[in-house]
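This protein record is not my work; I was only asked to verify it. Would you go through it and say whether the fold makes sense for this chain? Here is the record exactly as it was handed to me.
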Amino acid sequence: MAKKEITELSVEEKLKALYQLQTTLSAIDEKRALRGELPLEVQDLEDEIEGLNIRVDKIRREIEDFSMAVSQKKAEIAEAQASVERYNRQLNEVKNNREYDTLSKEIEFQTLEIELCNKKIREAMIRIDECERDLGTTERLIDDREHDLQQKRGELDEIMLETKEEEERLRDRARDLETKIEPRLLSSFKRIRKNARNG
């Protein structure tokens, strides 16, 4: 029965149905245009926040690694100092020059090892400070972006709330109109609309 009704429509009625469908779909497009770039901005902010959170995790791991390196170097310093003290005690009990030279070289080597460890500790502490400053900056940036995101989401939700009922009503009307148009004509209409820049 429905197919019979479609074929019985005059050319004028078919054109009117197409025109009404076009105006309805254009009205839906206008509602979407009200949102503008907000959905994209919200998505961009969400992606940026996710990237910043990954960066924060990376910085925290770096700080942890440097802190572990400092602890390790302090342990090495304590070990080297214990060796120096032991070698100094042995110096008092040497019996020949060769033993004295060997112990002196060991003391010198351990002293250099202590200096090297202290240098590495200073470098690690500098890197920890840099990482902590970077971490603070990144966390402030995340807070700013989250604040912006909340504002943009609020604006988007407000617009969506205002236009949702109207958009649903227009979609229902478009579906009703599509049932009145021949399938061949409807597919041609959709193809042309899809290829048009503004629908």
